[in-house]
Task: structure prediction
Amino acid sequence: MKLRKKRAAAALSILLALTFGTISCAVKTVGTGDGESQNPETSVSVSVTDEANIADPSAEDATQPSTQANADKHVHVVAAGDNLIHYSVFMNAKQLAGGNGYDFKPLYENMRYIVEDADVAIINQETIISQSNPVKGADGGPLIFNSPPEVADAVIDLGFDVFTMANNHLLDFGLQGLQESITFWNDKAKTNDITVLGAYLNEEDANNIRVREVNGVRMAFLAYAEHINGFDELLNGSPLRVIKNQEEDVIERQIKQARQIADVVIVSAHWGGEDTFEVTPDRKILAQKMVNWGADVILGGHTHTPQTMEWLTREDGTKGFVFYSMGNFICAQTDNFNVIGEMPDFDITIDGETNQVKLENVGVIPSIVHYESPDFQNMKLYPYSKYTPQLAAQHGLPYAVPRGTYTEFNWDVINNIIDTAIPKEFQKLDK
Result:
């Protein structure tokens, strides 16, 4: 249960516990957010006495073994692709704020029920937040990004718990911009129940594996990037650390360490060529290695297109799962495949008898970035189930400037893209 999402229920439980029973509080350390050995990010677990005992304290002798000792544990997970804040995205937010900063929340609001329904929600924050630098969103010039801090407030409010930052835009404003962004997100982690990873203040921080305990399940998160737009050498001699996909020895070590300290290992991988549905052989090879080393789920990003997914089998017969690319969550791109994204949606079950990890109900909720007119007005995200042929007919993509290459857009185009990228067995079109 996400405490910030269910404060009223939590408050009621605490009141009942104070009245009728006992309360135990455990603070779980989850990986550092500031490069120190003591982690400021915490997940607070509040437990109250069994409901049956609250109703009748004498109903069961405390010395008797619990019938729940070997119960299965369940976690419902949702993920989202690149939170890509183009110029027209933040201009919509600026207009919504009425001249007082930026209000991104209405852009995401249609997705709230999906994110809040998850026990854990994961997103890739594609753009840095560096408050000493100007806000940029590839506004007709170089493809560099720096987003307003209100973006963070919006996606935290929406219900995301885990934020990955390993991507190719980390050094768009140099080392200073990256350091400011890491510090910004670490500060957010101190005041919110969130986990942040993928870019680190130093080597010690990079090797401190982030772990969240959810519904009794310990979940480890790791994140890696293929490149940083040619600025990789800026990191030479700097304490700042981003782990690259090519550092397979580091990735192997970290996944195996995560396997030792957690029940479930989820890896975010920023990789592949942009604007394509093709999954390159090198990614398939690395994905199989990650699963062999102990990854249970791989969440791919970077291509700005939705891509396929599959089960990967280890030598012992157990399996992991890879989503090769989730595409964009939000953006203002102008090719039709850029505005269709994937939201992985699956359940993790830990068998109470064997401790075996099982992935169940694995699939994808398609998402659509909607905007209208040539200047990207009325921008909003929609899940497929809430979108309509009428909205598709109003989409501004065919008329947007700068003009894309694949500009046809209608209900059939949306369904063709979904069928191209997402195997039928994994399509969740009604959620």
The chain has two domains: 3-55, 73-369. The chain has a mean pLDDT of 88.
